[in-house]
Amino acid sequence: MLPVLYIVVPCYNEQEVLPITSGLFLKKLLELAAAGKVSPASRVLFVNDGSKDDTWAIIQRLAVQDQHYEGICLSRNRGHQNALLAGLMAARSRCDATISIDCDGQDDIGAMDGMVDAYLDGCEVVYGVRKRRDTDTFFKRFTAESFYRLLNWMGAQVVFNHADYRLLSSRVLEEFSNYREVNIFLRGMVPLVGFKSTSVYYDRAERMAGESHYPLKKMLALAMDGITSLSVKPIRMITGLGLLVSLLSFIGVLWAVADSITGGTVQGWASTVCIVCFMGGIQLLCLGVIGEYVGKTYLEAKARPRYIISQSTWDPGPEGWRKGGE
Ligand code: UDP
Ligand code: MG
């Protein structure tokens, strides 16, 4: 029996690029099926992440045109990671393996052959890794690479220069569904599941159309989620810093006492203010970092659903029926 493959594609306001890349995904799927590597029952599954443009209408149209296209629609915009998770979980029971890929054509679709080959060789996880970052601006390249280094230094095991282009077997997805956390950073969580894995390398191109939805603000939020959901090292660093500052203060107190005993008291207004400011700053910083974790705990404790699917191309839902499937 040939494995059923689902290509899972999160889409947010992608009406410009979707008409171009949807054809490329289908072409690759049909090629893989013709080569006898995957079952003809394989599909391209689009996840509409609460787009405000015509993205969902395009997906619905594609699903009508060709049975290889399917789509689910989230009830509102939940962000790339949640949208991807929704797609993977929806595909889980329908397939043997998924490949997740962005819909903007930046990731080389040709790398899917290598991924499927590795899967057929017995790998359960295949990471798509960028060879070079020539097409990125210096700023994006520098911040992204520093981020991977920082994460690894903090003890999180992320694959260097791997984003969310990867193959996952349904077995891994089944295990992954037990990770119930709300703050998700998939590229850091997948290695935690384990199983046999490998990497395939590819060149990343420019976006084919439309524009990036990852401005600096979202990138920083993703980085913060990545660090705080994978590592408690910042808390340990704060403890270490606290110890160091305490030790220094202790020495300072000894010095001040000795100084006043020997009668050499100083008019130390400036130094006092400096110390007060320094301490205040450090304390606020530490409180901020701890607060970050407390906030995360609060969100996890509420365990709200990570996404809500309002419609799908195989089940339009009450809203869809009312509008006649449109
Ligand atoms: N995306 C999404 N929800 C969002 C933002 C982005 O589903 O809130 C999707 C987007 O449609 C694309 C992928 O995530 O398929 C990566 O986004 P983008 O290409 O804008 O990021 P970049 O490649 O610039 O980092
Ligand atoms: Mg992109």
Task: Give a quick precis of the structure.
The chain is an alpha/beta fold and 326 residues long.
**Which distinct ligands sit in these coordinates?**
uridine-5'-diphosphate, magnesium ion
Give the N-to-C terminal Cα separation: 35 Å
Q: On the 0-100 scale, what is the average pLDDT?
A: 84
Describe the global form.
elongated
Number of strands: 8
Query: What strand line-up does the widest sheet have?
Result: 7-5-6-4-1-2-3-8
Please tell me how large the radius of gyration is.
25 Å
What's the helix count?
11
Helix content: 40-55%
Largest sheet: 8 strands, mixed
Uncertain segments are 321-326
- The secondary-structure class comes to alpha/beta
Strand content: 5-15%
User: Helix and strand succession?
Assistant: EHEHEHEHEHEHHEHHHEH
